[in-house]
């Protein structure tokens, strides 16, 4: 039997200090402890486990040789370079996914949705590697696996069958990719992935970089399919740049329609991509999640996977500096992500899973703006990281 | 007599390893040491002292209570809030400027141009405070002081006389601010500040946030005055958002004209402001510098003043991920800044000042992308910071 955990003097989302009590892996009302371990939070800011709603665990080069990036600027240059690098660098998806997870754990990232490449060159190797890591690290973090046709599905025969196999092997979600600019046939691509999701009873997560009115048209096609298949609450649109590009009237109409069908939108707030209207999206009731996208890979050389820093980036991209706005971006990187990827029992209320990140900051806004590193990370009532230092319980990885 | 300093196995800008020798505060050919102190750089990347070409040393709240930001979104909301905060929070420009300088020293920031407020409420207090800090810390860092009419000059009678007094007190540069949107009279504002610069033989540095064609018109007015007064190489335009907003033909023409008159442009690469076309600007021969702008103040709650991280932000804002592009942004934050603010004898060539930052990274691109923290900082041949730890030589500050 695990000891109870009593966290004293923590401030959830920067609110008044409270004591939090975790028994059998869940928050419960503070009660007589059996043999309680105590953590003095000393007034630190408490957040439920941070949610990484969009990354690529199979693509990171963390811990490998420096990759000299000579890649051209277009998305297809990058997809080609990515596939070439996978071959030449021997990126081991099992090892690399474990490295990324262990790197982001001390930040308090306890829930991860990862897109994982499926294509006719690598087959299911990356899916299998990430699934092995998920199993090996299941006591530390929850991982959702999206079967992701990075190189296209209609474009590369055999990929659809591999997608099917990935779902049978344990992938949780059907991924899609730019139905027009990459797949060259938006209707057919969307028909194929929605049929796959319907057949397997799985959610959908679509990379949609399509710009402006082309992107808006693709969103309309997605909306039609969500309505037809009653997939409300089961679909996420990742990036959705078009929402930051179309005229205000169309922008408003699309956001309202997405909210009505409970389609979540994931944005990383990239400084070089169109900014999504975060405030309007949240006010419209749209579920907004965020993610790091790839970190330290062939696409981009930077990134650390800290979802509290991501909240800062979202604010910066949107020109938000107000404390209240920073609290909103922190919500996107926690509750927004949780709702977007469909987590149950998330939060610090009684009955929720006993996951917590303590951040040494005076206010929630300071936590976002300064992203202090010496955090304490608790999962299911077990202290995994204390003041930035992993506890002895953590497994060694390669 | 100071001991010579021999730095072995350093890689300037990521090039082949060399030994560097500093005697009497300057790089000289490697020669017989008198009593040389040796630093083993172990193949680290070497950069000359990083150049902060645009900050506000008198505005940072580093080390003070958390400022709850409830400020509205417009620039005039922020100027008002800034002036109110100065009164109510008692921001001591001498103390705060010292704190910021000491915070950024371990990053290797050895040259700083700071705008310092001059207005009818605070008078010369901030100028005097920053000048005191400059004197107190002169053995650590070079500081240039811009007399900056943050609240307007035409708009607030008496400011011009204070600007004159600031220059007599030791300010080095005449500052200007949005001649149209804040000063409401672009021609008269520019005439006044250029006359001031001409009368005192000082350079000019103008905050120009004016958008689109309004900003382009202001740039034309600046160009006319630089030609008329032969101020080539003596004027910097800070921000210059309009360069990222006008149509390509006008953009090209303006960039060529600025390059021809040797007017430098400073950009911070803010994620929420228009992106300047860095590649085109550099290819046109325009001098491009960068800066942190205010850090941890009433305007923005974040920022650490690391000019190597700033190189990363510039790349990110411009969608650059290539190693060669990252090297370019590192140049902007070193040589670009040095040329932009008019530093003499800058660099690692023989005869230059013996200033150096050693960064533990495998390549220059990795240094930019990952911004390692355990740097070694050398100024005029003296080791100030070793592997991220200040040496005993550094003065204590409040």
List the uncertain runs of chain A.
Answer: none
Number of DSSP helical runs of chain A = 11
Shape of chain A: globular
Oligomeric state of shown chains: homodimer
How would a textbook summarize the main sheet of chain A? 9 strands, mixed
Q: Strand-and-helix sequence of chain A, N→C? A: EEEEEEHHEHEHEHEHEHEHEHHEHEEE
Structural class of chain A: alpha/beta
CATH C-level label of the largest domain in chain A:
Alpha Beta
The CATH architecture category of the largest domain in chain A equals Alpha-Beta Barrel
Distance between the amino and carboxyl termini of chain A = 31 Å
Topology, element by element:
2 copies of one chain form a homodimer.
Chain A: E1 5-12, E2 18-23, E3 26-28, E4 37-40, E5 45-47, E6 50-55, H1 75-90, H2 93-104, E7 109-117, H3 125-136, E8 142-148, H4 159-169, E9 173-177, H5 186-200, E10 204-208, H6 212-229, E11 235-239, H7 248-260, E12 264-266, H8 278-283, E13 288-289, H9 307-317, H10 323-341, E14 356-359, H11 364-370, E15 376-379, E16 382-386, E17 389-390
Helix pairs in contact in A: 2-3, 5-6, 6-7, 9-10, 9-11, 10-11
């Amino acid at each position: 039997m695990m000891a109870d955990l009593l966290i004293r003097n923590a401030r959830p989302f920067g609110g008044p200090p409270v004591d939090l009590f975790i028994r059998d892996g869940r928050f419960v009302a503070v009660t007589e402890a059996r043999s309680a371990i105590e953590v003095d939070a000393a007034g630190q800011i408490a957040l439920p486990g941070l949610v990484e709603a969009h990354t690529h665990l199979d693509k990171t080069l963390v811990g490998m040789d420096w990759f000299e990036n000579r890649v051209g600027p277009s998305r297809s240059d990058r997809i080609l370079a990515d596939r070439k690098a996978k071959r030449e660098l021997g990126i081991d998806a099992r090892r690399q996914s474990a490295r990324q997870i262990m790197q982001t754990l001390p930040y308090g990232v306890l829930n991860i949705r990862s897109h994982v490449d499926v294509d006719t060159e690598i087959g299911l190797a990356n899916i299998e590697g990430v699934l092995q890591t998920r199993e090996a690290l299941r006591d530390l973090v929850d991982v959702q696996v999206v079967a992701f046709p990075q190189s296209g599905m209609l474009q590369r025969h055999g990929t659809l069958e591999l997608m099917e196999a990935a779902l049978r092997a344990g992938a949780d979600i059907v991924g899609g990719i730019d139905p027009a600019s990459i797949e060259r046939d938006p209707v057919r691509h969307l028909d194929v992935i929605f049929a796959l999701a319907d057949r397997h009873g799985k959610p959908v997560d679509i990379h949609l970089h399509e710009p402006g009115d082309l992107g808006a048209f693709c969103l309309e096609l997605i909306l039609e399919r969500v309505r037809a298949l009653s997939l409300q609450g089961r679909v996420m649109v990742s990036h959705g740049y078009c929402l930051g590009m179309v005229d205000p009237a169309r922008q408003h109409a699309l956001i309202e329609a997405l909210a009505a069908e409970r389609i979540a939108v994931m944005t990383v707030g990239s400084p070089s991509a169109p900014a999504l209207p975060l405030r309007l999206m949240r006010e419209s009731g749209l579920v907004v999640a965020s993610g790091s996208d790839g970190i330290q890979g062939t696409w981009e050389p930077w990134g650390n996977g800290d979802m509290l820093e991501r909240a800062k980036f979202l604010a910066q991209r949107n020109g938000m500096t107000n404390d209240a706005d920073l609290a909103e971006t922190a919500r996107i990187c926690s509750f927004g992500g949780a709702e977007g990827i469909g987590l149950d029992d998330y939060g610090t209320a009684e009955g929720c899973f006993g996951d917590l990140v303590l951040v040494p900051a005076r206010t929630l806004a300071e936590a976002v703006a300064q992203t202090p590193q010496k955090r304490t990370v608790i999962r299911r009532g077990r202290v995994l990281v204390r003041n930035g230092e992993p506890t002895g319980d953590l497994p060694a990885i390669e």
